[in-house]
């Protein structure tokens, strides 16, 4: 065990193990011995060649990183518990969220399906709205700062956050932020605003859909040059999210989607296509046909009523094998459909609300299914890599690599990232 791992901060926060390292320090798994709970502890390391003035600026930025989310009590922003100065450097104590970042998920599984990206975007809009209403601009929204804990989406790392009530701590001539996700006006030297965060959100959602941000190049200067001089590329996998992404990635901040318009477009996309006129049901379509035939027969001087009654008597009704004619109740569990044993992913509808989204990850995501299965129908997929979403796990029987998964709760959504070689 290293000296750091034996350290107890402020007589209560014990370092347990290292979680990861970044440019500015180390994140530790810790334990709050006073309240007996797990915590995450961010250790910030000061460069050795800092002047005394720079050291003061660093401390002030650290306190600001802690204060920003501490003011923002919301489910979508990481909660900060404490700041400790120990061994000549600051440590930030936060809630422990044992979940992958959006960046890790993209690297592991490739582009995400539009419905999941829509959910992520909606939660991040909530987080930004809370921050912006408090006068705080994040300035570094990117996939590595977004944690995905089941359906919870959490915005983290307010190290570059700027409050309208505080003085700027960024030195003149120093570029701050991540070039692939920074807004064009900020890269050009203008002050960051809430609209800048909305650009970064657009770039983050673009990366989730396409596997990479829109202007990323082989180095920082090339990225900034592309950002300044090239048109924003249209996303290829966005589907109904296209207007949201392009609106957020409008280079002119005055034409960029506002928060309210982004929410409206995103919710419209999540609700699906709308029709001004409801499609007639089979019963009403039949009545319309009968009325048309009746009018035609009457115009020819024939007894329409007798003809219509005869037609209704001769109608055979629904086929006994059609989904709508199946007896109510769930299919029996335990008897898998043919071919399940050799499939990467298989699903069968227990009820008529079994909706699935299945895709193959890669540079260009391939959608295999986006449908609601008729009760009793089954689907199986043999591709070695599969991403699948089951929207109501109580409505579907699911097999992964030949093994049946436990039935979930009503309305519970399950997401599967499968690799046949590793067991998923």
Automatic annotation (TrEMBL):
**Which keywords belong to this entry?**
ATP-binding, Kinase, Membrane, Nucleotide-binding, Serine/threonine-protein kinase, Transferase, Transmembrane, Transmembrane helix
**SUPFAM superfamilies listed in its UniProt record:** Protein kinase-like (PK-like)
Name the residues that span the membrane: 287-312
Residues bound to ATP: 42
The enzyme's E.C. designation: 2.7.11.1
The molecular function terms in GO held by this entry are: ATP binding; protein serine/threonine kinase activity
* Pro residues composition bias: residue spans: 325-339
Task: Look up the domain of life of the source.
Answer: Bacteria
Keyword Phosphoprotein annotated: no
- The keyword DNA damage is annotated on this UniProt entry: no
Q: Where is the Protein kinase domain?
A: 13-270
Spell out the residue ranges making up region: Disordered.
314-339, 401-424
Q: Where is the composition biased (Polar residues)?
A: 414-424
Tell me the protein family, please: Belongs to the protein kinase superfamily. NEK Ser/Thr protein kinase family. NIMA subfamily.
Output the PANTHER family linked to this UniProt entry: SERINE/THREONINE-PROTEIN KINASE NEK, SERINE_THREONINE-PROTEIN KINASE NEK2
Report what the protein is called: non-specific serine/threonine protein kinase
Native species of this protein?
Answer: Actinomadura rubrisoli
What does the record give as the organism's lineage?
Bacteria, Bacillati, Actinomycetota, Actinomycetes, Streptosporangiales
């Amino acid at each position: 065990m290293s000296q750091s791992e034996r350290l107890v901060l402020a007589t209560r926060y014990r370092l347990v193990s290292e979680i990861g390292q970044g440019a500015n320090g180390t994140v530790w798994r810790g334990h709050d011995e006073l309240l007996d709970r797990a915590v995450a502890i961010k250790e910030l390391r000061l460069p050795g060649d800092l002047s005394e003035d720079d050291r003061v600026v660093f401390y002030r930025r650290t306190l600001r990183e802690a204060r920003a989310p501490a003011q923002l009590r919301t489910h979508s922003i990481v909660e900060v518990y404490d700041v400790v100065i120990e061994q000549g450097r600051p440590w930030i104590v936060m809630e422990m969220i044992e979940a992958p970042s959006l960046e890790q998920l993209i690297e592991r599984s490739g582009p995400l399906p539009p419905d999941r990206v829509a959910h992520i975007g909606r939660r991040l809009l909530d987080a930004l709205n809370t921050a912006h209403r408090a006068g705080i601009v994040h300035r570094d929204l990117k996939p590595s700062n977004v944690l995905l804990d089941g359906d919870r989406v959490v915005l983290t790392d307010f190290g570059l956050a700027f409050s309208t009530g505080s003085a700027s701590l960024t030195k003149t001539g120093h570029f701050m932020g991540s070039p692939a996700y920074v807004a064009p006006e900020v890269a050009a030297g203008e002050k960051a605003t809430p609209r800048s965060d909305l650009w970064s959100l657009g770039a983050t959602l673009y990366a989730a859909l396409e596997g990479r941000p829109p202007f990323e190049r082989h180095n920082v200067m090339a990225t900034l040059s592309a950002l300044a001089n090239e048109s924003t590329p249209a996303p290829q996998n966005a589907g109904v999210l296209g207007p949201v992404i392009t609106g957020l990635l409008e280079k002119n901040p005055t034409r960029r989607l506002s928060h309210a318009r982004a929410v409206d477009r995103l919710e419209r996309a999540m609700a699906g296509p709308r029709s001004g006129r409801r499609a007639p049901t089979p019963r009403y379509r039949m009545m319309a046909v009968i009325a048309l035939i009746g009018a035609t027969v009457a115009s020819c001087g024939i007894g329409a009523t007798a003809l219509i009654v005869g037609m209704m008597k001769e109608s055979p009704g629904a086929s006994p094998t059609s989904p709508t004619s199946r007896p109510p109740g769930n299919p029996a569990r335990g008897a898998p459909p043919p071919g399940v044993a050799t499939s990467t992913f298989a699903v069968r509808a227990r009820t008529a609300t079994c909706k699935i989204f299945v895709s193959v990850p890669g540079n260009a995501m391939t959608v295999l299914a986006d449908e609601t299965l008729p009760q009793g129908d089954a689907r199986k997929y043999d591709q070695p890599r599969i991403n699948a979403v089951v929207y109501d796990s109580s409505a579907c029987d699911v097999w992964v690599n030949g093994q049946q998964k436990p039935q979930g709760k009503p309305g519970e959504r399950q997401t599967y990232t499968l690799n046949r070689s590793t067991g998923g």
